[in-house]
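Re: 4'-phosphopantetheine structure - here you go.
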Amino acid sequence: MGDSFAETPNAARLASAPHDGQKGGMAVCPGSYDPVTLGHLDIISRAAHVFDHVVVGVVDHPVRKKKTVFTVEERVAFLEAELENLPNVQVKPFDTLLVDFARENGAKAIVKGLRAISDFEYEFEMNQLNRKMAPDIESLYLFSAPQFTFLSSSGVKELATFGGDLNGMVPPRVAARLQEALKRPRTEKI
Ligand code: PNS
């Protein structure tokens, strides 16, 4: 192999990939969003700033999660309510491979948030799997804003179960519904 970029496998891959000749274009922001957090909303709005259009893909039955607290319709509705001020963002459920969903929507990129080193291993695996199936779709990672690096849907659910304050973590309407769905009654000491 020579020294020129044109001779690298990456250049060959890019040359063979369909290209619409436009920058920006469509991106997919996928996730379970059970429930959506302010960290997710931060990533989606930043993606909407960079791309012409963003489709937020809500996984109907996430493979690695046993059961979701909210149905896919509820998760979509929460996201739609919070994102209604962003005209270039649409929310859609999906129940297929992520790369197939991205292709169906004409997306050239999958955009995800990266919080800490702990996210890296999982995202590294997902990136390799998705790249193998769809080398023409790039996975792009946006670093979380500092105030959201600790925030996760599972952490929020744990706090809600024990009546913790969710202020600054999820939108108020999501906090109310989550508390309602998960709050355990206090057991009285005898
Ligand atoms: O951490 P999340 O929010 O549950 O992530 C969901 C998703 C779809 C972003 C993640 O599982 C992923 O990147 N999957 C790629 C493999 C795939 O297509 N799986 C089928 C949908 S679960």
